[in-house]
Specification:
Elements (H helix, E strand, L loop, with lengths): L1 E4 L6 E3 L10 H36 L6 H15 L1
Antiparallel strand pairs: 1-2
Length: 82
């Protein structure tokens, strides 16, 4: 706010009011941290769901056949046909 000119050298005078402003950076950082934590929680939940699905799939999966099982089946068919 300008208050006029100073006597003597005629310099312009003004009044400055120093105020304290609340820094919003902390709030922004806190919001980013919360969003990051939520994202990490979502990722962990997805990973757990995938692992559970894989575990269920493994339980229902039949044992893999080996070459020997195939050979046994061939000889069993020949033996049964006689």
């Amino acid at each position: 706010m300008d208050i006029g000119y100073r006597k003597g050298d005629a310099s312009k005078m003004s009044i400055l009011e120093l105020t304290r402003r609340e820094i919003k950076e902390k709030k922004i950082k806190e919001k980013k941290a919360i969003k990051k934590q939520q994202h990490q929680d979502e990722v962990v939940a997805k990973e757990v769901a995938v692992q559970e699905e894989r575990a269920e799939h493994k339980q229902t999966e039949r044992p893999k056949k080996s070459i020997i099982d195939g050979v046994k089946r061939i000889f069993k068919k020949e033996r049964d046909s006689l």
